[in-house]
Write a structure and sequence with these properties.
This protein is of the alpha/beta class. It folds into two domains: about 130 residues, no CATH class; about 30 residues. About 30% of the residues lie in helices and about 30% in strands. A six-stranded parallel sheet has the order 1-4-7-10-13-16, with helices on one face. Strands 2-5-8-11-14 form a five-stranded parallel sheet, with no helix packed on it. The chain has a five-stranded parallel sheet with strand order 3-6-9-12-15, with no helix packed on it. The longest helix is centred in the C-terminal third of the chain and has 29 residues. The radius of gyration is 22 Å and the shape is elongated.
Length: about 170
């Protein structure tokens, strides 16, 4: 069991690193904010295009023109914060304070959503809490892929075995 947990942690770290590199490589403007392991704060007078955070949290008091995404961190939208796109957290919580406006969807995988009554969400609110979702999203496809590879290896070995003549 410890080996499985260690392997899952290593897989998550490698995936986060690859996603971080891909996000940095395709960032389209200086108003995008992408961090790995360092929290991001958007002040009340700031305007940011997109926010992506790996292993860290995001605190927003200003305006985000696009999406806000965290992997292994929380998202806090404080009084008067605005997000024009979607707000998504993988393995983290989302908190929407009074007067917050999100034009897109709000989604939390393996985390919770806390929403003030006056917080406005233009899209869907989806909360898939609990660690089971992480297993379903990341582990199940890997298990299926491993089973497929094992089947291919078994099939190739079976086809390459020399045939033994029948005894007379």
């Amino acid at each position: 069991m410890r080996h499985l947990i260690g392997a899952l942690r290593l897989l998550a770290l490698v995936l986060a690193f690859v996603l971080a590199l891909a996000t940095v490589a395709f960032a389209d403007g200086s108003h995008d904010r992408t961090q790995f392991g360092h929290n991001i704060t958007v002040g009340p007078d700031e305007n940011v295009s997109e926010i992506t955070c790996f292993g860290c949290s995001v605190r927003i008091r200003g305006h985000v023109d696009g999406d806000v995404t965290t992997f292994g961190g929380s998202i806090v939208l404080e009084d008067g914060a605005e997000v024009s796109g979607d707000t998504t957290s993988f393995a983290g919580e989302i908190r929407l304070d009074q007067g917050v406006k999100v034009d897109g969807d709000v989604t939390a995988f393996a985390g919770n959503i806390r929403r003030a009554p006056s917080a406005s969400v233009g899209g869907d609110v989806t909360n898939m809490g609990g660690p089971g979702w992480i297993l379903l999203i990341f582990v199940l496809p890997l298990v299926l892929f491993a089973a497929f590879v094992a089947f291919i290896i078994w099939l190739i070995r079976r086809l390459l075995q020399p045939s033994v003549p029948a005894a007379a």
